[in-house]
Amino acid sequence: MVILAHFRALIVLGLLASMGGCAAFGPGEPCPPGTQNLPDCPPPEAIDDPFITTLYWQRTWQPENVHQVDVVEIGVELDIPIQNARAKFLGARSEDALNSLAAKIWMIEHAQHTIDATYYIFKRDLVGEAMLGALCNAVQRGVDIRFMVDSVGSIDSSHSGLKALETCADDAGFMRNAAGELTTRKARIQIVIFNSISKVFVRLNRRSHDKLLVIDGKFPDRAIVMTGGRNISLSYYGIKADGSPNPDTYMDAEILIRTALGEDTDDYLVGNLSENYYSILFLFEDNKRLSPSGTAEALGIYATERQKAQTALVQLKALSVLKQHMDTMSNYLTEGWYNVRVLLGHELDNLENKGIFSDVVDNMDNNKNSIQFLLREVRGDDYKQRRIVSPYLFAAQYYDDDGNIVFDGARNVREWLEQHPEATLEIITNSVLTSDNFSAQAVIDMDMAPRLLLTDELQEAWLESPDNSELNPKLVESKEWRELVSHPRLQIYETGRLDDRLLGGDIDYGKLHAKYIVMDHMGFVGTTNFDERSRLINNEMGFFFDGEELARELHADFDLLKSRSYLWGSPEWLEFRRQVFELDGMKGTTAKSQRAIYKTLRAIGLDHQL
Q: Does residue 228 fall inside a structural domain?
């Protein structure tokens, strides 16, 4: 807890440094006529609330040369506590996806104090525009907002929609304290582009893959935290713009977290921690603060953008398929929570570490808050059933400068199973039909699964088989192959089946995008794909949890996904691949070229850097 106090002090001191040049009208001082919208011009009844004033400056963006704090170092060294909380799980079902979308809009519309949001992909379709509209309305009723998108995941030449959102703060209301009283601090919208590629000397490859929404984080009785795999785009919520089902939707997962009932408000609670974590990302030295253009505002461009966002918000909420979820959201976010203990994990050290591959073991060991480090801490005898869901799961393998293997994830898994004869490991990932990344899928099918399941000889034989001859009996009908791919305690499943609509059936399997682990009564839900980019390059985040009831929800979701999958290497899986190979277009071409794709990636050293 000493480091937590140190963190809070650094943030406060660093941000308070600029207070000397900021004037504010005192309570009871009327605003001059016609100047109600000037910064820091409160209504006569507004009060000076010390908590709100401190919070206001804690939330103020400043460049690194002003706050002069290495926020990443603080995040890496932070002594993150295990916290009591309440949680819900939103999985792959279409009902969960719609609840996720309804929850995001409802949470923004009912925020009373602050909103913090960051997304890797922010797309200006109906969902993205509706979120802009809801955020605009929120600041105008006095909610202080910080919004951040990744500069690569949400690449945009102008970000005109985000700049228009910031101009909503021209008509912002004043922040309220916990008692609902107006204060002298006017709400803002501060928009930041994470690790902006337009800056000089930026670490181009270091991305924020976070998807995080924190509502009223510093107010324990109101705080709600939401994270997981879903970005801001219609593609993640199972519907098209007209409300009809989207057959090619992403099958995803998220976790909702609230303060545990009865928790002491003086404790360092989950909403407070999540907002402070957000501050670290927000103040990262290579971020860029967006500024609206006076010319664009004068030309009415931003007014048009703001109106577009309001129209989209009305249109989205009017969709009958979503309206029923919006209508019940108050009860949904009040009832049915599971008591859990949670622990925030992240990969902040990836943003600055050196020797990404050559020093990988040391880097992982040095970040005690790393998701990968924490996963290694729970590899003991306590958890017999381990289940992993990831769209791009790789089996890590790292070398030193002399070419010696210093870490082999596949070998470690096999050794762990040998040492724990009662343990099982099940994995669900994408197939050639459901993946949206044919390069990553080539690594999964030509490297990850073979290294986990097959002998060295069979691995080589599988890789050297002609792409269009996988059904040859010499290899895949041999006794050894059948025994190895039917391992009773190590099973790899890939989503999609022969009754998919693209193959002449009547089922849509979408694209797997969920990222979670469940082990008996504990688990992890977050943003990491457990691939090399997630482990070593991106920042990622998520929550570990311990709770039997919540774990049952994840196990049920896993079983649902498994029922929509084939076992890697099985006859059904091989026939499924054969039929995908015969599809016209990019899907068929890339599927039957997997071996060539993988060999090319391996030859140029990119097989584990996708």
A: yes
Cα(45)–Cα(30) distance, integer angstroms: 9
Kindly state the average pLDDT of the residues 359-388: 80
In a domain, 29, yes or no: no
Same domain, 403 and 297: no
> 87 — phi, psi (to 5°)?
-145, 155
In 143-216, the DSSP E strands lie at: 144-150, 174-176, 182-186, 189-194, 211-215
Residue 237: the pLDDT is 98
Residues 100 and 237 in one domain: yes
For residue 341, being part of any structural domain is answered with no
Same structural domain, 310 and 412:
no
Same domain, 112 and 224: yes
Q: How far apart are CA 59 and CA 114, in angstroms?
A: 9
pTM of this structure: 0.92
Task: Assess whether 388 and 245 both reside in one domain.
Answer: no
* CA–CA distance, 371 with 349 (Å, rounded to integer): 11
Q: How confident is the model at residue 300 (pLDDT cuts 50, 70, 90)?
A: very high
Q: Give strand ranges (E) for 250-384.
A: 250-251, 254-259, 288-289, 338-346
Residue 402's domain spans which residues? 347-603
Q: Residue 447: count other Cβ atoms within 10 Å of its Cβ.
A: 21
The enclosing domain of 251 has a CATH number of 3.30.870.10
Number of neighbouring beta carbons within 10 Å of residue 403: 6
Residues 553 and 255: beta-carbon distance below 8 Å: no
CB contact set of 221 (below 8 Å; sequence gap of 6+): 259, 265
Query: What is the largest distance, in Å, between two alpha-carbon atoms of the chain?
Result: 88
Give the residue from 14, 96, 119, 6 showing the smallest Cα distance to 58.
14
Q: How far apart are CA 250 and CA 121, in angstroms?
A: 13
- Residue that is last in its domain, among 305, 332, 359: 332
- The full length of the chain comes to 610
End-to-end Cα, the chain, rounded Å? 38
| Residue 157 Ramachandran class (φ > 0 left, ψ -120 to 50 alpha, else beta) | alpha
- Residues 503 and 588 both lie in one domain: yes
Residue 29 is given by DSSP the state -
Q: What is the pLDDT of residues 84-105, one digit of tens each?
A: 999 999 999 999 999 999 999 9
> Where do the H-state alpha helices sit in 334-394?
360-366, 371-377
> Domain boundary residue among 300, 332, 364?
332
DSSP 83-99: EEEEEEEE-SSHHHHHH
Average of per-residue pLDDT across 308-317: 98
Same domain for 353 and 383, yes or no, is yes
Q: Are residues 284 and 370 in the same domain?
A: no
Q: How far apart are CA 510 and CA 526, in angstroms?
A: 20
Total domains in the fold of the chain: 2
- Interstrand relation of 405-408 and 397-399 (parallel, antiparallel or unpaired): antiparallel
Tell me what pLDDT residue 207 has: 87
User: Which residues, including other chains, have CB under 8 Å from residue 530's CB and lie 6 or more apart?
Assistant: 388, 390, 392, 393, 394, 515
